[in-house]
Amino acid sequence: MQRALALTGLAAALALTSLPAAADLAFNASLTSDYRYRGISQTRLKPALQGGVDYSAGAFYLGAWGSTIKWVKDAGGDASAEFDLYGGYKTEIASGLTLDVGVLQYLYPSNRLNPSANTFEGYGALSFGPATFKVSRSFSNLFGFADSKGSMYYDLSASFDLGDGWSLAPHIGRQTVKNLGSASYTDYALTLNKAIGALTLSAGLVDASTNAYFGPGGKDLGASRVVVSAKYTF
Length: 234
Prior knowledge:
Low-confidence stretches: 1-17
Number of helices: 2
Strand content: over 45%
Distance between the termini: 34 Å
Strand order of the largest sheet: 1-4-5-6-7-8-9-10-12-13-14-15
Largest sheet: 12 strands, antiparallel, barrel
CATH topology: Porin
Order of helices and strands: HEEEEEHEEEEEEEEEE
Radius of gyration: 18 Å
Number of domains: 1
């Protein structure tokens, strides 16, 4: 089953590259000092290589994205990469107010965790001015937590244009894990970005207020830390 999911993900990613030339198609590649997802390190506080492809046609969009990871192996599984497939619909529903709804499948090929780390979520977001409020709900178990279907993530973020390619992005999020309150937590981030043509450099302070996520050697995977990254879009 895991292999079938992985092959499906690969086929979808390849399909994106064969869409009509008139469509909006963009690729990205990045290097980060620590892959933090919802405040929790996915790479044992170590660097990650990442890349993706996005396709849009009018209000509809599709995308595929991947990153190196370490947490599945640390949990006793056997996956060293994460692949995400997503699609949705984004449109302005009132003057200055944008609605974005979609689904996202996280794939960890051959992860061998029970329950599986593979996770399927739906999301909806409203954006007005620089601010976005987004709600995600898992339609499957959440990242290997048993009986966690229906877990929620609430995300309030913004992006302030400071001029000359600089922007500042504050964020606060709340992850609730269904039937496992001890694994629920709040995360925070404040990121400064600098766009130089197709290259974006970022430095952000990230923190997750939880004592529930630890890696080998007792590493606190939600510890407050500055994360730097470089992303190139082409």
